[in-house]
């Protein structure tokens, strides 16, 4: 009897070890991939100190135990954990790409067109196209704003870990602060704020007659089932009905897409319908990457695709130095991976605040901002088209007309039309520690405005 019990116990233990090993093995590409990709971009795009990145941004869960090797000769980062290994490679203009589906040699042999740079010197041009900030009194209490900046950046009163902070009132920056190690030239990771930039690219294409968001996608594998009814608009409003799990921190759809797949859009396209098209709202990074892929198909060449956002959007809005990274298949990672300065993010907010007009030129079509900020039917007033809304008063202290670009770990562009206000906060502030403290920050900023 004792032998039987011992045998059964040993068998259960062995089964548990085997299952645990299999599951851990499935996590290794995510663990090492996250570290390699994040550190590569932080070092080669943002010019950050790698030790500081590992101490701050990569100091959680299994990620903190990853060993990273930075090769400054070939612009790559290789990350190791247990028997797992991942490599991310940097290319000028395109940022870092996590290698999936091809070797490093194969990746380096791929030819890509040059990304057009700025044909103007921003340091010699006045804001908003340039970096000469005018001194203008807008009526806002700058002394109170300075105290708010201290609370955010120095004393962490809002329980965040902000790297940069800017407030634009009536089109003019009225406060701008950086944590040590960051400055006005630092490019910061957007995370999901990239979705809003994808909205802008789609808008420019609509204006030029290159895209109709109300047509069905035409994706071949979808034509034999109910997915054939999905429109581009359904994807942009997160109401496609496609099955999706957006949870970070585990083996979910979003982590498998970003860290274990070679084509983000293709991964998302393989998802079956979970709900009837247009019947349910839920957040999906996969939807944005499908839209990014559909945008790519509208261009005859990759050269036209890669240069389009820069020539039609970024250069015209004072943001020529943005880096929009791609997945291994070459699609812009519209869900997650864009790098820009905090002033660029503020300019982007101004573009929408000014109804799609920037520096006197209409960039987005008439009505596009209105479409973008119209609630998706099933979102309860919380989401528009790749932008978050405050119609449902998620932030109680902010006006209902506020809308925002929200990124993972506390990246925010708040746009408040009724107050002619844009607020940008960037850094590493995990949601559990910082999310609702934004409401207090917004409340304090709004209290600095002149009484109307």
Walkthrough of the structure:
- Helix content is 35%, strand content 15%.
- A hairpin with a 3-residue loop joins β3 and β4 (95-98).
- It has 14 helices and 15 strands.
- It starts with a helix and ends in a 6-residue tail after the last helix.
- α1 (2-44) packs across α7.
- The protein has helices spanning 2-44, 50-56, 104-109, 142-153, 194-207, 232-236, 253-260, 264-269, 285-296, 302-314, 342-353, 368-372, 431-434, 437-446, and strands at 67-71, 76-81, 84-91, 95-98, 162-169, 172-178, 188-189, 323-324, 338-340, 357-358, 361-362, 388-389, 403-407, 411-416, 421-427.
- The radius of gyration is 23 Å and the shape is globular.
- It is of the alpha+beta class and 452 residues long.
- The relative contact order is 0.13.
- It has two domains: 2-109, no CATH class; 142-446, Beta-lactamase (3-Layer(aba) Sandwich), CATH 3.40.710.10.
């Amino acid at each position: 009897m004792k032998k039987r019990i011992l045998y059964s116990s040993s068998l259960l233990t062995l089964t548990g070890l085997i299952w645990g090993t299999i599951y851990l093995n499935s996590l290794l590409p995510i663990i090492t991939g996250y570290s390699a990709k994040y550190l590569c971009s932080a070092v080669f795009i943002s010019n950050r100190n790698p030790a500081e990145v590992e101490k701050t941004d990569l100091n959680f869960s299994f990620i903190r135990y990853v060993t990273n090797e930075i090769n400054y000769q070939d612009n790559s980062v290789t990350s190791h954990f247990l028997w797992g290994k991942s490599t991310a490679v940097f290319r000028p203009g395109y940022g870092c790409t996590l290698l999936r589906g091809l070797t490093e040699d194969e990746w380096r042999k791929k030819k890509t067109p040059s990304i057009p740079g700025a044909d103007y010197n921003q340091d010699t041009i006045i804001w908003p196209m340039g970096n000469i900030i005018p001194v203008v009194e807008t009526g806002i209490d700058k002394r109170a704003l300075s105290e708010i900046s201290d609370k955010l950046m120095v004393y962490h009163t809002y329980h965040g870990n902000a790297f940069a902070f800017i407030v634009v009132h009536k089109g003019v920056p009225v406060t701008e602060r950086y944590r040590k190690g960051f400055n006005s030239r630092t490019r910061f990771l957007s995370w999901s704020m990239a979705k809003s930039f994808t909205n802008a690219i789609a808008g420019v294409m609509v204006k030029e007659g290159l895209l109709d968001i109300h047509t069905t996608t035409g994706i071949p594998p979808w034509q034999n089932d109910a997915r054939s009814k999905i429109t581009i608009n359904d994807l942009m409003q997160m109401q496609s009905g496609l099955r999706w799990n957006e949870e970070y921190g585990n083996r979910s759809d979003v982590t498998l897409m970003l860290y274990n797949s070679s084509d983000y859009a293709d991964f998302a396209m393989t998802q079956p319908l979970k709900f009837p098209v247009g019947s349910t709202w839920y957040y999906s990074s996969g939807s944005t990457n499908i839209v990014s892929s559909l945008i790519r198909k509208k261009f005859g060449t990759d050269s036209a695709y890669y240069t389009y956002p820069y020539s039609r959007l970024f250069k015209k809005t004072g943001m020529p130095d943005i880096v929009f990274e791609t997945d291994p298949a070459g699609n812009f990672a519209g869900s997650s991976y864009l790098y820009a300065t905090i002033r660029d993010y503020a300019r982007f907010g101004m573009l929408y605040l000014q109804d799609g007009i920037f520096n006197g030129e209409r960039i987005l079509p008439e009505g596009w901002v209105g479409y973008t900020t119209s609630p998706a039917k099933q979102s309860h007033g919380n989401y528009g088209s790749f932008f978050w809304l405050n119609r449902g008063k998620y932030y109680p202290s902010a006006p209902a007309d506020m809308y925002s670009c929200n990124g993972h770990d506390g990246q925010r562009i708040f746009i408040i039309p009724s107050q002619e206000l844009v607020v940008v906060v960037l850094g590493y502030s995990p949601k559990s520690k910082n999310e609702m403290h934004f409401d207090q920050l917004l409340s304090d900023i709004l209290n600095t405005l002149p009484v109307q």
